[in-house]
Amino acid sequence: MTRIFVDADACPVKEEVYRVGQRYDIEVVLVSNAWLRTPREGRVEFVLVGGELDAADAWIIEHVTENDIVVSADIPLAAACLEKGARVTGPRGRPFTEQSIGDALATRELMSQLREMGEMTGGPPPFEKRDRSKFLQTLDQMIHAVRRAQT
Questions:
Q1: Fold for domain 3-150?
Q2: How many C-beta atoms lie closer than 10 Å to residue 73's C-beta?
Q3: 134: which of 72, 77, 78, 93 fits an S-S bond (Cβ 3.0–4.6 Å)?
Q4: pLDDT digits over 61-109, tens only?
Q5: β pairing state of 95-96 and 87-89
Q6: HEC-encoded secondary structure of 5-56
Q7: Are 101 and 75 in contact (CB under 8 A)?
Q8: Cβ neighbours of residue 10 under 8 Å, at least 6 residues apart?
């Protein structure tokens, strides 16, 4: 049975995931190291992990299985989940695939080095309405692809 795992600490599309999970009757598993309010309707499970660095990532990696879907902007987490056969999308609707993850990891490393040298400052661009739309489109495509693969 497919589940949607959400790296929930800073995820801007939790409400969208709840709605999609309810529409398709898919369990949504929110993993966070801070308490979050979750909806009463739908199949939503909340997992509170310890405050250690990457505790949510470790929990997701341990529990994710083939044909699950993971929502996270964390590239190393995406790589680990892809290795387990899961499908992964960022909250802006960017799907991570076996073909794209190597470039994403290399870009992440390069950007980290540039920030350390003071060459780059600032964070990602503001989250916009079109990002939500792209995310919903990507999540819907992943759900349909998983369902096709299971039949």
A1: Rossmann fold (3.40.50)
A2: 17
A3: 93
A4: 999 999 999 999 888 999 999 999 999 999 999 999 876 766 665 665 6
A5: antiparallel
A6: EEECCCCCCHHHHHHHHHHHCCEEEEEECCCCCCCCCCCEEEEECCCCCCHH
A7: yes
A8: 73
